[in-house]
Specification:
mainly beta; single chain
Length: 115
């Protein structure tokens, strides 16, 4: 979870599971849904990690980010969500009121269906 316009580095770990690293090894990081953005990804080959900055959108919402690691035709991918919150945003319910209703009849009908 990030606050609106907040930026945070994300690190994803990968493992080639004993396979040798292909000369065509590549990775991609992209936003597949939502308004978050990702910056330039950096790989640490020795640790098997990919690190990239994620910047949250400036409004409430959820973004989906996908990381794909391709080792010469064999690929693995992972997706994760970035949830954006804005603690300074004005409540959309401000100034509204709610009424609490007691509905006994429907509860009785639901209970009677279980007999």
């Amino acid at each position: 979870m990030l606050n609106a316009n907040e930026k945070k580095d994300v690190t994803v770990k990968y493992n080639l599971n004993g396979d040798s690293r292909s000369p065509e090894f590549k990775y991609t990081v992209k936003v597949v849904r939502g308004k978050a953005s990702v910056g330039q990804a950096q790989e640490n080959q020795a640790e098997g990690t990919i690190t990239f900055p994620v910047t949250a959108q400036n409004s409430f919402g959820t973004s989906q980010i996908k990381v794909v690691v391709d080792n010469g035709g064999t690929s693995k991918e992972c997706e994760f969500a970035v949830i954006t919150d804005d603690p300074n945003a004005e409540s959309v319910l401000k100034g509204m009121s709610a009424n609490l209703r007691k509905i006994c009849r429907s509860l009785w009908l639901q209970r009677s269906l279980h007999f």
